[in-house]
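Most newcomers find our protein records easier to grasp once they have seen one. Read left to right, the backbone structure tokens trace the chain's path through space. Once this layout is familiar, the rest of the handout is easier to follow. The record below serves as our worked example for the rest of this section:


***
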Amino acid sequence: MGDVGRRSPEIEVPGVRGSIVISIIKKQRQPIERELVQHILVGVEPGIDSAVARELSRRMRQYACKLTIECDSHAIANARVLFDLLILGVRAGERVTLRCVGPDAHAAIEDVARVLRGRGAQ
């Protein structure tokens, strides 16, 4: 006859009296989120200055996703962080890559692209 209950595995560790019980916790699998990527040409003049950075940061507050802006120099900025956007130094006419992950990624990436193209600043 076998054990009625389940036993956790036990291991012996040299120098330790008794046994150590290891609990195995199964984690539920998280759905894999796809990253949306969009390459755009910055059309807003003069580029990402303080006003544009403030507008992008403000707009990103309504989204739950994470959006980054990458310029040709491979510098990356979090679109929520004003300072990150300012130190990117992106000028009008430059090509940037937007990368977005999250539940509302499509709406966020379109909103940010609209602002950077110069067709959505308020």
